[in-house]
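Pasting as-is:
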Amino acid sequence: MSPATALNRDRVRELFDLRGAYLAQTGGDYDDDPYPVWHRLRAQAEIHPGTVHELTGYPGQALFSGLPHPDREHFSAFGFAACDAAYRNPEVFASAPDVVDPNHGRVGALNSMISMGGAQHRRYRALVQPSFVPTKAQWWIRNWIDQAVHELIDGFIDDGRAELNVDFCAAIPVLTITGSFGVPVDQALEIRAALGKPDTVVDMIRPLVAARRESPRDDLLSVLVQAELPGEDGSTQRLTDAEIYSFTVLLLTAGSGTTWKQMGITLTALLQRPEILRAVAADRALLRPAIEEALRWQPTDPMFSRYVTRDIDFHGVHLPAGSVLHLCVGAANRDPARWDNPDSYDITRRVRPSFAFGSGAHTCLGMHVARAEMVTGIGALLDRLPNLRLDPSAEPPRVIGMYERGATEIPVLFG
């Protein structure tokens, strides 16, 4: 059964609508443009007391990295220099408030590599890094991405129209990451829906882990069951089931929850600028710069947080030990001290590293897979859908959301 026929589109819409209940807790109902406020805050000072959503004027209790922690003081950084300095100093600005151990406590994304630091983080990351380096992109494309992309297009190509967020963008990452675990297509959305209940995800993954231990395949789950963790004494040991479960929950959360929004943002930027879209269609060497500029200009996750481990005077503000520093990377990515005309979407600008995938030791592990999904997906749309354009009779897409930003519906015509 192909992805186009196996995925329930109503279920996709429910799980991947920023304005729906599933993403409401991250501020999915925020539909203003936060960048003017962030520009004003950054011009006043690089760091302000308070959380990003409070300082932006969002009235609700949006949850995300480093929130809510009502017992801690909160500060937010809006400048590139401050965010860069924090990323470069993980001893003071830690990714988690406490040491984690996947073999103890609840299975979950936060009880995994993303919350580790120092040598512990390096050992775990070294296990899986080889599967996510740029040279491995073709492995992902060949095994999972390319098939999903083209079968999804097959599902709507005869209609002459599509809604690309649901019909296309949302499905690709979740099919890619679940496919790399050997999860059947008809269960992919159920795993996505269960991410708030990690024990349910484990129940679905457990038999697959056992099967790969018995008979490895050419997939990511087999990489995990065969990986050997180096010990501090020079010995090695295989990952435990608990360690694999926590890592799979992390990959499912990150892999199915970000790339679809970033692909939709990139498509929206191009479709709203037909002259740039035509240029990219005519010269595919422009596709990667178009994606990189969208990553800088409108990152889907505009804030990540760090826990302050000791008192420090930082960019003019005293941060006490135990406080939380929220790095507004969305604002930092438009810092005029680093980019000229930062509010412009300009695919010809000189590419400079941004914080779209974080920075430092915790730079996003899956960033090259995400890029491969976007290049393959958008490239296939341009190859197969002639005269691709926004549907003038439908409401145009907008980028919304507070801590998870993405496009609304992307209605297009073609042919």
